[in-house]
Amino acid sequence: MEVAFISLIFSFSYVTEIGGVDIWWTGSRLHELPSPLPSVGAPLTGSSIVPYRYHFNTVTFGYTTAFWTFDKWSLLLDWLALRGVNLPLAWVGYEAILIETFREVGLTDADIGSFLSGPAFQPWNRFGNIQGAWGGELPMQWVNDQFALQKQIVARMVELGMTPILPSFTGFVPRAMTTLFPNASIVNGSQWSGFPSSLTNVTFLEPFDPLFPQIQKSFIAKQQAAYGNVSHFYTLDQYNENDPFSGNTSYLASITSNTFASLREADPEAIWVMQGWLFFNSLAFWTDERVEAFLGGVPEDDSMLILDLYSEAQPQWNRTNSYFGKSWVWCELHDFGGNMGMEGNLPAITTGPIASLNWPGSSMKGIGLSMEGQELGNEIVYDIVLDQAWSSSALNISGYVEKWVSRRYPAKSLPPAAQKAWSILSTTVYNNQNPNTQATIKSIFEKAPALTGLANITGSHAVSLDVAKLAHASRFDRSSYHHYLV
Ligand SMILES: *[C@@H]1O[C@H](CO)[C@@H](O)[C@H](O)[C@H]1NC(C)=O
Ligand SMILES: *[C@@H]1O[C@H](CO)[C@@H](O)[C@H](O)[C@H]1NC(C)=O
Ligand SMILES: *[C@@H]1O[C@H](CO)[C@@H](O)[C@H](O)[C@H]1NC(C)=O
Ligand SMILES: *[C@@H]1O[C@H](CO)[C@@H](O)[C@H](O)[C@H]1NC(C)=O
Ligand SMILES: *[C@@H]1O[C@H](CO)[C@@H](O)[C@H](O)[C@H]1NC(C)=O
Ligand SMILES: *[C@@H]1O[C@H](CO)[C@@H](O)[C@H](O)[C@H]1NC(C)=O
Ligand SMILES: *[C@@H]1O[C@H](CO)[C@@H](O)[C@H](O)[C@H]1NC(C)=O
Ligand SMILES: *[C@@H]1O[C@H](CO)[C@@H](O)[C@H](O)[C@H]1NC(C)=O
């Protein structure tokens, strides 16, 4: 499998570096490879600078893929494999196994139905931010269809040489658990985003309760039976935008030590994958002392893999002494709330991973993408991050962009304007150095026409860039504007 994977990456390098054409998410110039095929010359060699190349954000499964069919999945998985991703997140179909596990402990379908959220809102239910659905319960037909889809997705990931990061039991349970198990250690999570307590303050079974490992083992056994023994990586977030019941450091350490013990009871080689977003989002709660106690509850450094979710703008690894030794992944994050716009910080995403890796005592083990929504566009950002994972020095941005443009667009008719336009984009929208723009860039063209209120409102943060310069990029060769800016 590993051999197949490596050869896939080198085939892609041949196509792009030597063949001079590209294969992207929605298209390909593979048919334009020169004939006869150019010789390789010196053998292609290369290796990744990190063991893990990661992809997805838990919320992408709501913002982007909630209603995808396997055709769309298949296309994206090919795109990931060609770019060397070996550790993608695989959340689809979670509820099917969770429902079975809940039924087993005695919860009724009505109890469970009142807990689960609708398709587009599931990430926040999985995070324990919200519970319940409005406008009817999650249909079982949908749950079953998603389960069948996940079987296809996981099989395809494995076939492409990738290791899926699979779900696990987090501790979030239907309210009825408190009446079913009156003596169990159960607390309410905090309130999320102003929701009424009936829809938030999600019920949390504390990991030191004996029921927790019992449910974990059952969940993971069912999951292994469904997808095969294909991964030891488990995504598990308990405090994402949700503060712990207590800030007592011994409480926090006991949460993680017991959660981790439950994973290892279920899978002796389990690795706990967790987003590091909480440490940024809830900075006031997560003092260094609490972070250290929380992470310290898990015994070995490589038993955890933390996603440093917003490394290019709000890194947390550098304030936590490289997560106090736990392994972590350098991630690029934008498209907040699934809002799409051209945005990136090419200097930060090329120099950042290298500086982090070379930091004395760094426990960084991966590079990846954690964009909230992923749609067409911004592929230059994704390509350069994933290519940076294969280069021990920071990639040369202008050189990279030039090659990227020439392999992407028809070479014979490529006007110089295409290169000029991309040179402007790469130094404006893709050179966003402001860490406070919250990575949500919304084009004015996407909005309803108005004379006021077009900027500086939620979801449309101001960006400091030279608009006149950017407008210039779109003026070159108007007739082909569309072709060169997508
Ligand atoms: C809960 O604990 C109380 C007091 O220890 C005990 O009397 C009761 O039987 C327990 N209930 C259950 C359901 O275990
Ligand atoms: C959790 O919240 C519910 C209301 O939604 C409340 O009835 C219950 O008492 C709370 N439980 C705890 C342990 O605070
Ligand atoms: C919900 O969480 C908030 C803290 O975020 C807390 O003040 C409130 O008491 C909680 N409500 C319930 C019903 O648990
Ligand atoms: C799963 O694979 C691991 C090796 O990666 C092995 O130790 C374990 O016994 C396998 N479990 C099952 C249920 O086959
Ligand atoms: C934290 O919890 C432990 C164990 O329950 C307790 O002994 C200790 O006094 C608590 N510390 C604080 C500061 O409350
Ligand atoms: C971590 O790095 C970021 C980005 O370079 C910087 O803004 C922040 O001040 C650094 N934090 C610490 C504690 O060094
Ligand atoms: C980066 O590439 C450009 C264009 O290919 C070249 O002019 C420049 O010298 C390179 N910069 C460095 C630092 O290598
Ligand atoms: C948006 O807000 C920023 C900061 O408050 C301000 O500098 C800028 O002028 C505002 N932009 C617009 C278009 O109102």
UniProtKB/TrEMBL annotation:
- Keyword Signal applies: yes
Among Pfam families, the record links this protein to: NAGLU, NAGLU_C
Annotated signal peptide: 1-20
Q: Which PANTHER family match?
A: ALPHA-N-ACETYLGLUCOSAMINIDASE
The organism named in the record is Hermanssonia centrifuga
UniProt-listed InterPro entries: NAGLU, NAGLU_C, NAGLU_tim-barrel
Q: Which residues form the Alpha-N-acetylglucosaminidase C-terminal domain?
A: 400-468
Domain Alpha-N-acetylglucosaminidase tim-barrel span(s) in chain numbering = 53-391
- What are the protein's UniProt keywords? Signal
Entry annotated with the keyword Amino-acid biosynthesis: no
This protein is called what?
Alpha-N-acetylglucosaminidase
Q: What lineage is on file?
A: Eukaryota, Fungi, Dikarya, Basidiomycota, Agaricomycotina
- Source organism, top-level taxon: Eukaryota
